[in-house]
């Protein structure tokens, strides 16, 4: 799972990477040209949940492609996307609206939820980092997510109601424990209103094929996919503060194809980590030389072909 991925159309032809576009008009913001490697069949399941239930929950590690998946869903459904990252500092005023002083008069500044509800054509409201939000603020979502499907805006004394085309998506990272205290664990009442999926990284086979298609070198793909997988394990164990995502190693593959050496790429990758974690990260790279790449190559004929 990663942003802007295109696979080679024919043998020997290098893939091109189109840039996604965000188009804004009077009906909202639309994503175009988003590509998502759907190895696990998430898109059809997510579409079904949105169309039947209306509330979708995505749980997955950082870099597994949760946000890319939501943008791709918005494109497939041809719906505007209303997106916001939740933190402890986000208030109900930010999401619903608040009074502001403009030219000597008081006007309502519409929050993203109000913008979403007022869009007559519906749309997807995406709340990322759900586990980081303040509990009191998350509670306001309960009336939106259950049978009531509505929210009261006190600033204008009016209730707004969802239509069947107003879809609600939340996401969170199970390994980011800091944001859970007082939020996620206390908001099961809200969580249970959403039907969800666990979003995972690509399998090693698919990730190697993908990285090789951009680096033009299978040895590079084997080593850096193995490196990334080791960092993901260390991240879950709390030994590294961040893993290498598919997006990261895609960038490194492009740098390698551009002529950069592996040592220089590792120097760039090391900048992700504080001083006390760099040695551990570099030890993962050094041990990647122990991979039996020839054995992997011999099995490559059995691997799924990209298309």
How far apart, in Å, are the first and last alpha carbons? 15 Å
CATH superfamily of the largest domain: P-loop containing nucleotide triphosphate hydrolases
- CATH topology value of the largest domain: Rossmann fold
SSE order, as H and E? EEHEHEHEEHEHHEEEHEHHHHHH
What is the number of domains? Answer: 2
Number of strands: 11
Can you tell me about this structure?
There is one protein chain. This protein is α/β, with parallel strands linked by helices. It has 2 domains: 21-199, Rossmann fold (3-Layer(aba) Sandwich); 204-302, no CATH class. It contains 13 helices and 11 strands. The protein has helices at residues 42-52, 66-77, 92-96, 112-118, 135-138, 142-145, 188-191, 204-215, 218-236, 246-257, 262-270, 275-287, 293-299; strands at residues 21-25, 28-32, 55-60, 81-85, 97-102, 105-110, 123-128, 150-153, 158-161, 166-172, 195-199. Helix 8 packs across helix 9 (218-236), helix 8 (204-215) packs parallel to helix 10 and helix 9 packs antiparallel against helix 10 (246-257). The radius of gyration is 22 Å and the shape is elongated. The two termini are 15 Å apart. 35% of the residues are buried.
What tags apply to this protein structure?
elongated; 13 helices; 307 residues; alpha/beta; disordered N terminus; five-stranded parallel β-sheet; 11 strands; 19% strand
């Amino acid at each position: 799972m990663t942003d802007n991925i295109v696979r080679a159309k024919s043998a020997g032809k290098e893939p091109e990477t189109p840039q996604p576009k965000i188009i804004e008009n009077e009906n909202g913001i639309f994503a175009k040209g988003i590509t998502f490697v759907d190895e696990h069949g998430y898109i059809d399941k997510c579409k079904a949940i949105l169309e039947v239930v209306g509330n979708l929950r995505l749980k997955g590690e950082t870099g597994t492609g949760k946000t890319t998946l939501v943008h791709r869903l918005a494109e497939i459904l041809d719906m505007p996307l209303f997106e916001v990252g939740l933190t402890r500092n986000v208030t109900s005023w930010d999401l619903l609206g608040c009074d502001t002083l403009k030219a000597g008069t008081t006007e309502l500044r519409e929050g993203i939820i109000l913008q979403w509800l007022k869009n007559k054509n519906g749309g997807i409201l995406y709340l990322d980092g759900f586990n980081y939000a303040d509990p009191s603020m998350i509670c306001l979502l309960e009336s939106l997510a259950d049978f009531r499907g509505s929210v009261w805006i006190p600033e204008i004394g009016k209730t707004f109601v969802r239509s069947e085309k107003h879809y609600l998506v939340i996401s969170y990272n199970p390994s980011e424990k800091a944001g859970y205290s007082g939020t996620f664990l206390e908001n099961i009442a809200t969580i249970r209103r959403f039907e969800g999926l666990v979003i995972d990284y690509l399998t090693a086979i698919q990730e190697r094929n993908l990285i090789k298609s951009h680096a033009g070198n299978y040895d590079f793909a084997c080593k850096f996919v193995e490196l990334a997988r080791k960092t993901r394990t260390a991240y879950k164990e709390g030994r590294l503060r961040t893993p290498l995502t598919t997006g990261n190693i895609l960038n490194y593959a492009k740098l390698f194809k551009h002529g950069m050496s592996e040592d220089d790429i590792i120097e760039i990758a090391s900048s992700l980590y504080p001083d006390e974690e760099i040695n551990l990260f570099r030890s993962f790279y050094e041990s990647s030389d122990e991979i039996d790449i020839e054995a992997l190559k011999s099995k490559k004929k059995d691997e799924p072909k990209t298309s």
